[in-house]
## 1
Amino acid sequence: MQRLLLLMTTTTYKAEAYLDAAQRLGVSTTVGTDRPQALAALDPQGNLDLPFDFPEVAVHRLCDFAARHPIDAVLAADDEGVVLAAHLARALGLAHNTVSAVETARNKLEMRRALQSAGLPIPRFACFPADADPGSLTSEIEFPCVVKPLTGSGSRGVIRADAPASFVAVFERVRAILAHSGRDAGILVEEYLPGVELALEGLLQDGRLRTLALFDKPDPLEGPFFEETIYVTPSRLSPELQAAIADSVQRAVVALGLRTGPLHAEVRVNDRGIFLLEAAPRSIGGLCSRALRFGRGGSSLEELLLLHALGRDTGGLEREAAASGVMMIPIPRAGILREAGGTEAARAVPSIEEVRITAARGQWLVPPPEGTRYLGFIFARAPTPDAVESALRQSHGRLRIDIDPDVTPPEASPRPVSTLERSAR
Amino acid sequence: MITITDAARKQLAEVLAAQEGSGHSLRLAIAGRGPQGFEYELTLLRADEKSTEDMEVESGALSVLVDAASADNLRGATLDYVQQAGGYGFKIDNPNPVWRDPIALKVQRVIDTEINPGVATHGGHVALLDVREGKAYIRLGGGCQGCGMVSVTLKQGIEKAITSAVPEIAEVLDTTDHGAGQNPFYQPAKSGQSPFD
């Protein structure tokens, strides 16, 4: 039986989807996590504690493990694991993207430079140290602009600034987000691009892009924050424009040097062209992959990705004919989640397949740009994209989200500590 | 079948008398099994809600019904009403073993000796709720409830420990309401259905 090393953080949303997929495919899985698992001793082949921030140590630990339990493929479930996955695959001699390609794709500044070198349309950009004085930068910047960290996902820390006065506050806010997350890398400031935004979910094989789904994002993402909400596929753009988007992403993939595995790309389209905002060697975030089904049996995206990682055929697995979509339920304000009511009524909307509240009652919720967690997800499937979007909006309208803002925020949670870090103290 | 103490009888009479209309019954059932043994469900039923399948152990002004499926495990039990410094309420003393089924007993032993000591180090605990047709139904609590890695704990720990020690078990299903958990991580619920829904 083939064995897959699946890297995931302990805050992942994807554990269930990947482990279910592995079970359906009859694949043995070793879960590599950034913190030791409670029952790792009961299944030594199934669990591996790996320090995500120390690839050399992780490689040593994995090679020792793989000598006893051979690994056939390495896959990262989340953005945080993609660089380590490349290191580990290289050490084992497995097919994977190179470390440098993944590092370039994960760093927004490096990615912008690579795309610029390849002549691809990108927003004008500049990078500043996080400790720069924002007041002294305003003369160098065109407004409106978007300020963002160099790494990260889910629109965390991404804020629009329209004028010098607001830019100073925005820059300081992004700096605070970076400090809170323990990252001290630079801050990217780039041109704000009007237009519609789309997300492309793809699979790379020998550097060739196969588009699995192109999602419309029908809610305008104009700032000041860029909270993701509705994704609907297939896109309602013209076939010609969809083909042009796929071609643009393909060119970006080549420029970045990505060759294999999942790809999640974000593009903005306006009358100036197709601008690539992100091309990440990972799959779509949160539980959003549940909106996708492939082949006659309705295989999940994770099944498809596992098959690909293990070198098996995925050619017959095309996305279903029906339109589908997901709404990442917006967090209306920061505070304690008292109740997420109306879920039965929300589920009762025709074409709605699932309403999942993923935040727990009593959980402290923070909307973007500071927040990283989801309140929940609504999934719909219907004959047309318009029907999907309508159902998602109607379903969301029936939810009653009770968040109590009149409470003291909890102390910042400590960053997960790996065994390596602990042993070093 | 069961014994109802004078204190319970008196309290129950007051509860039933306080209901609107007449003909109410107390229904007693075993809802599951937890770390402290059987978990009970006491409900008040209107006359039109009674099931003919339930067993009536008291009738007349004080009507008490016992869920037929729970009857074997309630035989010889005593329903009491207690008032203590910590509170008051109905209490059931049940002499029956929590598990009669030898397979369930084996599963419980694995949970007690291998699983719970491990998950306790992360502030969690696992309770066996039922064993039916080769499936073990469990509920996770404490730090496990709502944890982002509970699928890993389930698939790569609990399920492997149970299925390797008890070959009669083919699948372990989590029935936890993870949305009610206090853990800061997100956890999607396992797709298994609770036998008690």
Note: The two ends of chain A are 40 Å apart (CA to CA).
## 2
Amino acid sequence: MAEHNYSGSSDGKDAIIKPFSLRFSDRNLEHKFQESWLKGTHKISRVWSGSALFVYITYSILPLYVHDYSNIITIIRFYIITPIIIISILPIFTYPKLKTVLPYAYFLGHISAFGASLYLFLHADTQNSLIFVLEMLVILVFAQNYNRILFSWTLVFTTSAIMLTIFGLLLGPQNHGIPAIPLIFVIIAISLTGVFAAYTREIFVRRNYQSIQVLRAEKLRTEEFAQKADAARRDTRLSETRIRSLAESVPDSIVTRDSDNRLIYWNKAAAQMFDYSSVEVEQIDSARLVAPEDRQKYQQAVARATEEWNGGWRRSSPLELTGITNNGEQFPVDLSIAFWRSGSQVFRTEVFRDVRDRRKAEQERDEAIARFHEAQKHESLGTLAAGVAHDFNNILGIMNGYTHLALDDVSEDSPVRQMLEEAIRAGERGAALVHQILAYTRSDENMDAVACIDRSVGESLNMLRSTLPATIRLDLQIPSLHVHIHADETRIHQLVSNLCINAAHTIGSTLGTITVSCEVENVSQRSGANVRRLLDAKNADAITTKHRPDGQGGKLWFGVLSPGDHVRLTVEDNGAGIDSATLDRILEPFFSTKEVGEGTGLGLSAVAGITLSARGAFAIETNAGQGTRFDLYFPVAEEGAASAEIDVSELRGTERILLVEDAAKLRSEVKAVFSELGYEITAVSDGTSALKAFENAPANWDLIITDQALPNLAGIDLARKILELKPDMPVVMVSGSTQKTLQAEAKTLGIAEFLVKPLDSVELVRVVRRLIDSPSARAQSAA
Amino acid sequence: MAKILIVDDELALRHILRLTLERAGHEVIEAKDGEVGAKILGIEKLDLMITDLIMPNREGIETIREARKCQPDLKIIAISGGGHSRGPDILDLAKKLGADRTYKKPFKPNEIAEAVDELLKQAN
């Protein structure tokens, strides 16, 4: 690896010392060496140069005190040579400014000094010639040992000096008295010695220097390396800390194992989730974290993942398992497996996520969706029921009517009579059924109805007494409360009858008692357990049950209560009670434990519907063989609400209204209400006719009421066209949907009011009146 | 022996009422909707009117109003199969606005007959 390094590396360990000039082959190293040489010899050179200067000055003055010297010599020596020497020595004192001049100055100074001595020697007589020889020798020695100058120059000087001597001795005057050849020999000998000394010294210094440089470079490299290693170690530690803190702060369990299944890492979450101490953890296999029935699944998954891993950063999709803690508690987990390589080792990281909460949330969501669908079904059922009821009532009316008439025409003893009577009874049952259905689906309830509960219950029970068998005692505890609830008399009758009929059924043909009581109670968190449970319920139609462990009964809570004054109606019997299985289904419509034809199965559904409409709730407590108790709570209603006469006078008017509604019955009804109140109302059944009617005489109309769902032209489009023609026309839109987008669109169009079906006719009239009376209100609601 | 107007869009119901009332000895005129009813009100002098409330072409309520206008002494019975709106009962409304009696379908023909007798007695 002997490269000539010209690029200037500071290394120089491969540099060679050229044998003749003693320079380094590495130019950079040579340069640095020279710098260091000069610097290093600086101080001592001063001393050396100082003494040299002293010597030369002395030599130049000396002749003044020694006679026999011609003046010319003195002049040359004193006035010429000495200054030259001084000037030439001066650079020696300065560094670095004149360092390039230095070798030349050295050479010039010393060779002129030597030359002058030589000249003096040659022209001296035998007496004094020795002095000058000695002078020459001194200069020679001096110059050779001057350590500030590189050997190469020393060599140059020495060679020049020898040349000069030989030249002078052979060609110069011979009266000095010293034999030439021996003198030449001496000079050469001394030169050689000096040169050799200088050579040795320099080579030694150079070698030293080179070694030091190499060592220094090595040291630097080592230091650099150590620093890098330190930095790398720091970085690693930092990233390790970072990753570890990440792993430790994550709520999921992270378990890392090597290919021999040895545990490498186990985070805090894992210890907490699975409840193992650090000692125990080392000893168990990951399979122990999984419930026994899922262990095979887990092991198969690990095996498959290992097989499929192709060396990349793939993470398996989460596997649903059941985890098991140290104590045997099971909980749902999602497991993800990832593999990674470090060097030649392969590691497996398993992440266990506790998904208890998520599963619960998913369950609740599914339940909520199911409930929502139930509610939707219920609502559509209600709408269906309402439609059916109306037509059914008509049909029943016809059937009953003819049957009654037929009965009149038939003689008392005719066998047909009984058949007709049965037919009538059946018809009445049909009407009752329709009534129950309507109560359950709450399709034709009167929102404002209010009735005195104690009176209604009392009346109802009076009527019931006669229908109940004699074996059943009716125990009444109904004080005169004069308190009202949000239900009309008919509904209260229905509720009480249904409950009592059910109670009678559970008593059967044995002796039994039905107790009905009524009381005012303030509902709050200080009330009994049942009430508190109802206060805490989430929805108005929430049903919760709690069964007896032996399945022979339990409790049921229906509805939700708000704190305040309530009427508690209790119906209690000592009949057969209700078992858990039946209790679960008891509020289900058409579910009945009675024989076919005996009951509709709608009794308690109707009770639930009526309770809901009355904004109440109830609790059932039952034990098989002992009896059942119903506690119904109804919020107290203001008596004034129902008997407030609808002040129709202020709703009357003579304005011209255009009604657009495709449902015939509703159209008739609304038209009826408005025309009774004096309005000139024109009803059409579709959008196109409405538009035509409007366009014929836009000024003829004071207000438009339109349904949204129309054939041909939808309500919103009709409204748009009308408002284009007459922007300040009050338009009332009626829709069966509560879609926010529709409402928003209506608002931006400028539709004055948006009502949702089912309609409250009086409310509709009020709205119409308001819109016609105050154009500013119209503008406000349209804004 | 009174002249009674029956206004109902249902043929069968009109028939039942006719039979019931004729058996009680009254004279019966039928109208299939409020418009026809109003025309008859303008022509004949009636003693009593029985009207359904929800009908196409002029409702019972309007017919009641018409009747009150041209024959203020007329006795009126209103019947209905139940309303479609969750508002105050339409029968209630009818009562407040002029009907003397209201009945919900399905009704018993005897009840109607009795009511007719009572109201006619009142009138005389």
Note: Chain B touches chain A through 38 residues (CB under 8 Å).
